[in-house]
């Protein structure tokens, strides 16, 4: 019979109902135990949070400064907290600085995780926790402590006992009810149960029992209405959720919701894009904005947020520096608006945070550039004033110079000219010359060879002779500036040239007669000897002095002698050719240098000189006087191989002529008179080259015993 009942539908329904009841009771018990366990876990989280804040506030600074006395005192204080089993403070290297309930040398157990902690675990009834102590983002130590879970386990055990009693009572009671009502109540309820499970899974089109007039039918009818309303509301909620998700999570800004108490209520996932922290990490922070804010901006940020929540006003453009999760600093801009529900209740403040680092850096760079530009402008103004003062000084200096100066551009247009330039070249005032072409005003400057210089090279001086006989020197210097112009410098050297010529005249001329002196004679002699060697052409030297000059000088005085010398020099100077050099060697001795001349040419000149000197008549104190000339001729290189020997040869020939005829004659060296010439040169201390000093005597005195035909016999 029991087997028959066991296979009957009612028994099955009763058994199924009993099983369902047992399952429901078990699930309720499990849910109850889980709720109790969750409550215990939440209490543990709150207790850990409280202890972490207190421990961080009390122990961070002493741990950073290694203040052991303060650490011992604080640890002792925390050791008296309820449920605190042990507490120890360690530095960053793991050394224990202070501890309570902690055995020396004991290793710290691994810290427990709240989300994985289970009160029924077969281990000690202590929750182990570790807290890092940080200062300015740097870890200075850690705190490890343990909390006793004995009370929580006892409470959980009592809850389990009550759940067991309630479950047993429910099973017995439900078994009776199932036994009584199982025949007509189980079947429609099972159908409704299946429909409910289907609706819970989102299947809103499930088949429902036919509604009736009894309670089961009314329940079925209400259940159908509930299903339709639930389906509509779930659709609207899902639609709103999708819309809010699109607005919040896909907005450009990072959105936050701060409740009226100033705590973070909600944040969008854009936080990871802006500051690098996930939504969960932001929610776990006490105040995410203050946590990431720079120390210098934190107080200002806190004041702005408190004011926005209390005043319930909108604000925008608040900027502060924040630390990114990766460690670098960035600029954030915050805009906020108050939030009200549909009934007008104040819900807090909505914050929109955007990364403005790039624009802020650009603004800072722009501000710096503007400040630099202002400083540069001020510096430019200072330099401009200095340049104006220097320009005024230079203009005054150039105007006071005794030299003419003019600046031109690359096309020779005048940029600046000082007053002396206008006066030197007889041009209009300098202001009227600006823009004029210098090559048109003074074409002669550009006809000469180009001698402009570059850099620090000394510019050569060129001469410009004006129509009024003045002589100007000018220099042309290239100016390497943006216009690539030129500087022209002019100087009037007329007086200097006249003075220089006068000095040269005095240095090379005889002061009495005006002919060249002995100094010029030596210079020209060396030059002509070198020229004769270079051109392989002979040159001749004629030296003569006056006979009877001493009688005039002694009888009539030096003034009479000077007059004789002046007249003779003037007469002879007219006789010599332009390329011949006539010099007074001293006293009554004269010389003539003849380039590219032979002995014949020198003899012809000597004959003219002797005739003109002899033809001169002088009268002093009523007495008529006459002088004559004795001339000596030497030819280079026939009679000498250097200048000194040539002078000695001509001088010896002159003394030979003086010895030969006091009335005037000339002598050319001849090789047939070698011995006499050598003795004569030795007596007068001339270079000892007897073989080159060979005089030949000619005379043309105008007397009956003169022999002018000898010239024709010697030179044809």
UniProtKB/TrEMBL annotation:
Q: Where is the signal peptide?
A: none
The residue ranges crossing the membrane are 12-33, 159-185
Which GO BP terms apply?
A: signal transduction
- List GO terms (cellular component aspect): membrane
Which residues belong to any copy of the PAS domain? Answer: 258-312
- Tell me which UniProt keywords the record has, alphabetically: Membrane, Transmembrane, Transmembrane helix
Residue intervals of the HAMP domain:
183-235
One GO term in the molecular function aspect is:
catalytic activity
Q: What is this protein called?
A: PAS domain S-box-containing protein/diguanylate cyclase (GGDEF)-like protein
In its UniProt entry, the species of origin is given as Rivihabitans pingtungensis
